[in-house]
Design brief:
By secondary structure, the chain is of the alpha/beta class. The chain has nine helices and eight strands. The protein has a six-stranded parallel sheet with strand order 5-4-1-6-7-8, with helices on both faces.
């Protein structure tokens, strides 16, 4: 496939960068506040987040467009998996996730993966649903982590006026990279609706980054490590 693929678009949060602290750590903290001692590695948390992800995709709306009530309903899947009563928990959940803010830590595999892809002569772009005010901090973070120079273009939804899964943002990304044939471009991301279905509908090759194995039955290229992408480029 190496002679076919001309470029790769990457998602930011949940793909090149891990949420920090992780969602499982935050759910463990929430459980503790609600009287349950549950480790961040407890499979019940992962099972609940899997249900949450599947349901979010079924609703066919970008996560950013969901109402507060929609998000709370999705959160109840995680509480239910932990056998915690969800009544009166909305504010506690909001408080714990707001404490994290937009904290990220680079995925340990990101730099080596990007370096190798860049050495292969493929164009690399970043495509992220992100408010414009986070553009400068994210670019600075990427520069400090030594990966900014691998990207030919960085596109954030808040700066271009469209958001994944809309076709328009993928088309803008392709044009900005000088890649007219969408079928020769991959998009790698962790969210089924925005990253996989969105890329698929725009004619790109979707690659689902699913490190916890939430979606084993999806009929698309699925990787659990960023470095696994190379088996589809050789």
């Amino acid at each position: 496939m190496r002679n076919i693929i001309k470029g790769i678009l990457y998602d930011f949060g949940g793909t090149l960068y891990d949420y920090y602290p992780s969602n499982s750590v935050i759910w463990s903290r929430i459980a503790k506040r609600l009287g349950a001692d549950i480790s961040p590695n407890d499979p019940r948390i992962w099972k609940g987040m899997q249900k949450q992800s599947i349901e979010a995709t079924r609703r066919a709306k970008p996560f950013s467009s969901l109402s507060r009530e929609d998000i709370h309903i999705l959160n109840l899947h995680v509480l239910d998996a932990m056998s915690i009563d969800g009544e009166g928990t909305r504010d506690i959940i909001s408080e714990e996730f707001e404490k994290r803010g937009h904290g990220y830590r680079i995925n340990p595999e990101s730099k080596k993966t990007l370096e190798r892809i860049h050495s292969m002569g493929l164009k690399i772009g970043l495509l992220s649903n992100c408010p414009s005010e986070f553009g400068k901090p994210r670019r600075l973070t990427m520069k400090e982590d030594g990966i900014l120079h691998y990207f030919s273009k960085i596109l954030l939804s808040g700066e271009v006026g469209y958001a994944k899964p809309e076709k328009e943002i993928f088309k803008i990304a392709l044009n900005s990279l000088g890649l007219q044939d969408a079928s020769k471009v991959m998009h790698v991301g962790d969210f089924l609706l925005d990253d996989v279905i969105g890329a698929q509908n725009a004619g790109l090759i979707p690659v689902l980054y699913d490190p916890l194995g939430f979606h084993p039955s999806e009929k698309v290229i699925t990787i659990q490590k960023l470095s696994e992408i190379f088996q589809y480029l050789m």
